[in-house]
Amino acid sequence: MIINTEIDKKGNQYPSKIVSCKKDIDNFSFTTENGVILQVTVIRDSILRFRYATDSHFETDFSYAIDENASTGFNKLKIDENDDFYIITTAKLICHIKKIDLKVKIYDVLDNSIIFEDELGFHWEENYDAGGDIVKMSNVAQEGESFYGMGDKTANTNMRGRRFENWVTDSYAFERSTDPIYKTIPFYIGLHHKKSYGIFFDNTFRSFFDFAHERRHVTSFWAQGGEMNYYFIYGPKMNDVISSYSDLTGTPELPPLWTLGYHQCKWSYYPESKVREITTKFRDLRIPCDAIYLDIDYMEDFKCFTWNKKHFPNPKKMVKELMDEGFKTIVIIDPGIKIDMDYDVFKEGLEKDYFCKRADGPYMKGKVWPGDCYFPDFTNPEVRTWWSDLFKDLVENIGVKGVWNDMNEPAVMEVPNKTFPKDVRHNYDGNYCSHRKAHNVYGMQMARATYHGVKKYAHPKRPFVITRAAFSGTQRYSSTWTGDNKATWEHLWIANIQAQRMAMSGFSFAGSDIGGFEGQPDGELYARWIQLGAFHPFFRTHSSGDHGDQEPWTFGEEITDIVRKFIELRYELLPYLYTAFWNYLNEGTPILKSLVLYDQEDTQTHHRNDEFIFGDKIMVCPIIEPNAKGRRMYIPRGKWVNFWTDEIVEGGKETWVDADINTIPIFVKQGAIIPKYPVQQYVGEKKIKEVTLDVYYKKGNFSLRNFSLVGKSNTLNIQQHKIGKFITSYETFKIVLHGLPFKILKIYIDDEQFLFEDVKPNGDNTLIIPKEFTNLNIIGE
Ligand code: MIG
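^ thats the input. predicted complex w/ MIG below
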C-alpha cells in the first residue's frame, strides 16, 4: 500500500491550533484543539526530536535503534513566543512552531537561513484494518536540494526525484530497480545552500520516503503504523550530520584487525578436504587471506548448531589446524529451527515457548533450508539470552571465530510475500506487537543476540558477526554484506554505490559479494571487483557456487597476479584502514566518503557516484566497464598525487586517468602521511618490525592524527604525537618521501644530527628511523 500524500488527501487529518504549551527541562509539549500533541525534545544543540501523538496520548517510548550511550546536553536553550509562533532557540538552531497549525520551521541560528520546513507537516490517516494511524510528514524540498543516505538503496547516491520503500526483504538477484531490498535505514541527509541536515525517522513499520518525486518541491515520509517520531540533526557539514546520527544509533567496538583482511567464501566449501584444498592454495600461491567461511552445508540437515559429521568428522581439530595457518573459521547460522523432536535446540525452544506464534495461537511455521521450521522471537530478551548461550560450543569449544547470520529478514520460502504474515506476534521487549512493527528489526535482534553470544565465548578476543538484514543501529553489533548480487558490470556499479551509501548511513563495516553471488564473472570483471573491494571495509569474495569457481586463481595467471597485487595492497594499508575505523567508532566519521561528503561546497560533487575517499586521504575510482584503459573522473579540489606515478594533479576538474587492467585510479591527498605494514599472508603472520610512512610532500601546514607535517621549499619537518598505551612491536619507521622538491643535505632527529650512514636519504628518498622520534627535520639545499 503506497499512500500518495498529495492525491489521496481525502482521509488525511491535520493538527489544528495550539491550545497549550508545557515546558519541561529539555522538553516542550504542544497540544492542539483536536487532540494532537507535539513533543519537541532538545537532545543536543544541533539535534531536535519531534514526536507526534493523535488522540491525546503517546505510546510507550521505546526504540531498538537509539544507542543507550547516545550523548545528550546542550549549551543554550530558551523558548519565546509571539502572536504567531513558539520559538525554541539553542546554540545552533532556531525552531518556530506555528500556533495556528503546528507547522515547524528550522533556521540556522548564525545567519537565520532556513534549513528545514514543513509543507503539509504532520498529518495522518486512520488505519481501519490494523488500528492506529498511518503517520505522514511532508516538507519543502529547498531550491537545489540534494538527498543522500538510506542504507542499501541501489540508486544514484543523490536520491532527488526518487521514492523508496523500507521493508527488509530477501532479494535474490536484485536489480538496480529493485526496492526495497535487505535493509531498512530510515535516515537521509538533505543538502542545500551548502548546508546539510539529517532526518532519522525512528519508526520500524513499513515506511516510505519521497524525495521530490511525486511533487518537485516536496519531500515526504510516512509509515503504516506507529508514531511520527523523527530526529532532526543539523550539520551544517554532512560529516557532522553523519557523526551525530552515529552517536544516536551507535558504532561498533573496534573489530579484530584480521576482520579487515581478505575473506574467502562460497556456498559451500565442503567436505573438510575441499576447505583445506582452498586454504592450502592460498598459502601456496602467496595470496593473503584471513578468513574462510562454511555455508549451510556444514550442518547436519541444515540444523543450526550441528555439524555434518560425514563431511566434518572433527570440527575442533580442523578449526585449530586452519587457525595454525592463519585462517579464522566463520560459520553461517540461520534463524529457522527445524521442527524435529530429536533436535535439542528445537525441543528446548518449544519447551520454553521461545518461537513466534500467529495471532490466534499456532506457531509461525515456515519452510527454509531444513524444511518446516519455527522461528525464535529475537525481540524477546529472554530468547536473545538463550540464543547467545547456544554459541558456547561453537565458539568456546570448537573455536569458530565469527558467525554469519543469513535469512534473517526473516526469509521464508514458498510463500507469496517471502516472509512472516503480518499477524505474527512479537514480544518487542515487552511492547507486544504484530509482525507489521517487528519485521524490520527481526534480523537486527538476531544479530544482536548472536553478537552477545560470540562476544561472551570469544572473550578476551573481540567478536565478529556479519548479518544480511539490518535496521538502523545494527552497526553496533555486526558487520554486513549487500546480499545476493549478480556477476555483472552493473552490479559492480551497485556495489560501489551501496558501500558508499551504507557508510553515509552510519554503517561503515559493509561490503559486497565480490565477483557477484549469482552467475560467474569473467576474469576482467572479477579483477575489477577485487580492485574496488580492496577499498571496502568488508572485503570478501562469495558466490552461490552454482556457476563455477570464484577464487582468486580461477581466471588464469594474469588475473591471479592482479588479484594478489590488490589483496597485498589491502594488507599494506591495514594500519591506515584501522585508523579510519578508529575514527569511525570514536567520532562516527564514515570510512568511505562520497565526494559530496568530502567537499559539499563544491556543487560538482553533488551528483558524482563513482569516486570516493577511502579513509580521509586516499581517493579511489573503480573501473566499471569492460575493456577500459582508463576513465574520466572528477578530482576534488586541492592537490592530489597519483598513487602509481607520483604525478601531481590539481583538482576541481574532470580528467582522464589511465588505468589498464593492472591498476585503478588511486590518488593520495598532498600532505598525507600513509602508514603501511609489510605484506603478510594473514594478520599476525609476522611480527611487525617496521612501519612504512609514505609521506606526500606539501608546502604548508597540516596534520594527520599523530603526525604533523610542515613543508617549506628547502625543509620538511615531521612531528609525531603519540597517544594510547598499546606497545607496538615495530621498532622503526621507514619513511618514503614522495615529491620532495629538494636534495637532502642534513637530517635531525629530536635535534640531533643523523649521519647519512644511518639513513640513506637520496636515491630512493627513503629513511629508516627509530619509532620514538618526536621531531624529524629534513634540510635541503
Ligand atoms: O537461500 O546459505 O545471501 O550469501 O550463500 C540462499 C546460502 C541462502 C543466501 C545468502 C548467501 C548464502 C545462501 N543464502
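Residues 267, 295-296, 332, 406-407, 468, 483-484, 542 surround MIG (CB under 6 Å).
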